[in-house]
Amino acid sequence: GAARSYAAVDLGATSGRVVVGRVGRGELTLTEVNRFANVPVRLPSGLHWNLPGLFTGILDGLREAARTAPAVTSVGVDTWAVDYGLLDADGALLGIPYHYRDARTATVAPQVRDKAGAQELYTVNGLQHLPFNTVFQLAAARDTAQLAAAEKLLLIPDLLTHWLTGSVGAEVTNASTTGLLDARTGEWSRDLAARIGLDPALLPPLRHPGESAGELLPHIVAATGLAAGTPVVTVASHDTASAVAAVPLTAPGGAYISCGTWSLAGLELPGPVLTEASRAANFTNERGVDGTFRYLRNIMGMWLLEECRRVWAARGEPSELASLLADAARAEPFAAVIDPDAPEFLAPADMPAAIAETCVRTGQRAPASRGALVRCVLESLALAHRRVLRRAAALAGRDITRIHLVGGGSRNDLLCRFTADATGLPVIAGPTEATALGNILVQARADGLVGDLAEMRQLVADTQELRHFEPSGDLRAWDAADARVVTAP
Ligand code: LRH
Question: Residue 392 and residue 297: Cα distance in Å, rounded?
Answer without folding.
Answer: 8
